[in-house]
Specification:
binds nicotinamide-adenine-dinucleotide, single chain, 257 residues, 15% strand, 7-stranded parallel sheet, alpha/beta, Rossmann fold
């Protein structure tokens, strides 16, 4: 009988803001499979909420990390090293763009808005993999989260589509670079889910409605379905898979109309 057992694995999950965060669904699934966990949260403001959540995870650590700061990233990995020594799994579930850049005309984006969205949502994967790989002594698995807006136009998704296109390219380049060390890098392209980040996207409710109406499964996905697919990609069950973008979207991506 097959069973995914992560009881000898350590996982670090970047990007938990609340109990609706995709990062939280993934963290819960990894914990249920037996992994030791560190939850990385953005700032002090989120600390008490994360403290409450993490009580449900056996032996989980909490570490602050703002990915817009190199110092914060370095400090986070120093803490990860001192707590765990080595890690096996890294989850990047982070994105941000200014609210005014997630609606209206795409071409209204200014240089600062572009830089912020691309820095937090795409660049951040690179230093996290670089630093995380130093602690992956016996290989490892990295997962990030993307969306179909990387290659198609979803009005309102705007600059985040540009950021996700960059992120998906990074998945391929990083998997090519780190494969020799036994480190795999993949992404899940998730269908729309109600989260804090999603709330900022103009037209999100309509996007979600259309996904449910047009997808082959005729429904939206559930948070737990991302957790389950993540468990597969982060475990040795997917040992032959790297550089892949796996759609978990009730099949919506195959539809033309
Ligand atoms: N919700 C959806 O419909 C959907 C669909 C496809 C992909 N995604 C992707 O899933 C990922 C997680 O988003 P979510 O929907 O769970 O929303 P969320 O708001 O719960 O998670 C986004 C996370 O990014 C973190 N973050 C933002 N700026 C940061 C910074 N400077 N430093 C550190 N962390 C920072 C936030 O604190 C938060 O934890 C994102 O990459 C998002 O684009 C979401």
């Amino acid at each position: 009988m097959y069973k995914i057992d992560l009881s000898n694995k350590t996982a670090v999950v970047f990007g938990v803001a609340n109990d609706r965060s995709i990062g939280w669904s993934i963290a819960q699934t990894l914990a249920q499979a037996g992994a030791r966990l560190a939850i990385l949260y953005q700032n002090e403001r989120l600390k008490s909420r994360i403290t409450t959540l993490v009580k449900d995870l056996p032996n989980a650590s909490m570490i602050e990390c703002d990915v817009s700061s190199d110092t914060s990233i370095t400090s986070a990995f120093e803490q990860i090293r001192s707590i765990f020594g080595k890690i096996d799994i890294l989850v990047h579930s982070i994105a941000y763009a200014q609210r005014e850049d997630l609606g209206g005309a795409f071409s209204d984006i200014n240089r600062d808005g572009f830089k912020i969205a691309l820095d937090i949502s795409a660049y951040s994967l690179i230093p996290l993999v670089r630093e995380g790989s130093k602690l992956m002594e016996s290989g490892g698995s990295v997962l990030t989260l993307t969306f179909d807006g990387s290659s198609k136009v979803y009005p309102g998704y705007n600059i985040m589509g540009t950021a996700k296109a960059a992120l998906e390219n990074e998945v391929r380049q990083l998997s090519s670079e780190y494969g020799v060390k036994g480190i795999r890098v993949n992404a899940i392209s998730a269908g729309p889910l109600n989260t804090l980040a999603a709330r900022g996207i103009t037209g999100f409710a309509e996007m979600k409605r259309i996904h449910a109406e047009k997808s082959p499964l005729k429904r939206n996905i559930k948070h737990s379905e991302i957790g389950d697919a993540a468990l597969f990609l982060l475990s040795d069950m997917s040992s032959g898979i790297t550089g892949t973008i796996l759609p978990v979207d009730a099949g919506y991506h195959i539809m033309a109309v």
